[in-house]
């Protein structure tokens, strides 16, 4: 087996050889601990028939571990300066494709069709650039990219929000949007010391697994998320007040909102943070005809 990229000594050697300097604005915090990498990969349950999508390979620390366990890895890297580095570090692997593109601009379903046709399953595995964690996750989920799971490193605070249960401080529209599609659990908490440079925040690896069925049947998913977002605009306010100011740009009629609550027997004086996804689904369906 090849020598790991992610040891502190080898990483330093690679960075020096290529004269690479980190760009903070691209969320460049590279992993320098092979144990953490092995641990991340073990949570992805890869087989030699799995296709992996990686976001932000950096110098290839995680990519090579994925290439050893999966059939093929397709990795999106926005920073052009890393292309010659990756060509060098990943030269022993013939099952890796690097795409020099902002993942947020990518045609993910097109790539999946082109690169992974006939594969058993597709998993996203990444040490994400933290400044775009949520847009990246939502692009995969809202775009209905046919993935089995995501195993992704992010800021711990975001992982806490995604996995939060009702009636906790961290619970909000992000918890609802992600948990509508995926089961979410924190796989491990990761200290700052395993990165170079060290980030300012604590990190966590989150595992998201696609649900067989959404937890509630809704008329319109976008409208469910709109109602959820609107219900948390001011956390201390009641659902009625929040929805009145968020639906139809604040022009929603109070009476009509109250009628929707009455139809489903829900108290409009509750706060958004107390509602389960199932209850948000019911509420969104009741509001849909008048406020879509
Ligand atoms: N995977 C490497 C590791 O674990 O050492 C690097 C992870 S680093 C946290 C994030 C990587 O994402 C960087 O290489 C950065 O250049 C890249 N990146 C940042 N924004 C991106 C975007 N919008 N699309 C694709 N890659 C991006």
UniProtKB/TrEMBL annotation:
SMART domains: rADc. S-adenosyl-L-methionine binds at residues 29, 31, 56, 77, 102, 127. Residues 36-212 form the Ribosomal RNA adenine methylase transferase N-terminal domain. The keyword Cytoplasm applies. Its EC number is 2.1.1.182. Gene3D superfamilies: Ribosomal RNA adenine dimethylase-like, domain 2, Vaccinia Virus protein VP39. One of its GO terms (cellular component) is cytosol. The keyword Aminoacyl-tRNA synthetase does not apply. It catalyses: adenosine(1518)/adenosine(1519) in 16S rRNA + 4 S-adenosyl-L-methionine = N(6)-dimethyladenosine(1518)/N(6)-dimethyladenosine(1519) in 16S rRNA + 4 S-adenosyl-L-homocysteine + 4 H(+). Keywords: Cytoplasm, Methyltransferase, RNA-binding, rRNA processing, S-adenosyl-L-methionine, Transferase. Its main location: cytoplasm. It comes from the Bacteria. GO terms for molecular function: 16S rRNA (adenine(1518)-N(6)/adenine(1519)-N(6))-dimethyltransferase activity; RNA binding. It is an enzyme of class 2 (transferase). It is found in: Cytoplasm. Belongs to the class I-like SAM-binding methyltransferase superfamily. rRNA adenine N(6)-methyltransferase family. RsmA subfamily. This is Ribosomal RNA small subunit methyltransferase A. It comes from Sporosarcina thermotolerans.
């Amino acid at each position: 087996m090849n020598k790991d990229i992610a040891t502190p000594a080898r990483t330093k050697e690679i960075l020096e050889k290529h004269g690479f300097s980190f760009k903070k604005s691209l969320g460049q915090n590279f992993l320098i601990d092979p144990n953490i990498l092995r641990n991340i990969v073990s949570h992805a349950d890869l087989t030699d028939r799995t296709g992996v999508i990686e976001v932000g390979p950096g110098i290839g620390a995680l990519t090579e571990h994925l290439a050893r366990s999966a059939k093929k890895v397709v990795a999106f890297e926005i920073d052009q300066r890393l292309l010659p580095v990756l060509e060098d570090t990943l030269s022993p692997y013939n099952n890796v494709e690097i795409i020099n593109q902002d993942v947020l601009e990518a045609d993910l379903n097109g790539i999946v069709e082109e690169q992974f046709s006939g594969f058993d399953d597709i998993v996203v595995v990444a040490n994400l650039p933290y400044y775009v964690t949520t847009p990246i996750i939502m692009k995969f989920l809202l775009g209905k990219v046919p993935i089995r799971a995501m195993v992704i490193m992010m800021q711990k605070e975001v992982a806490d929000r995604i996995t939060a249960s009702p009636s906790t401080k961290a619970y909000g529209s992000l918890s609802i949007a992600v948990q509508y599609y995926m089961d979410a659990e924190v796989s491990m908490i990761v200290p700052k010391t395993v990165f170079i440079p060290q980030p300012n925040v604590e990190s966590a690896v989150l595992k998201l697994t696609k649900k067989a069925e959404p937890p509630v049947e809704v008329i319109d998913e976008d409208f469910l998320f709109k109602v959820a977002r609107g219900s948390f605009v001011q956390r201390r306010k009641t659902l009625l007040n929040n929805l009145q100011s968020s639906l139809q740009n604040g022009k929603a009629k109070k009476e009509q909102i109250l009628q929707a609550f009455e139809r489903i027997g829900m108290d409009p004086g509750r706060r958004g943070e107390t509602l389960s996804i199932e209850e948000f689904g019911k509420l969104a369906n009741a509001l849909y005809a008048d406020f879509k």
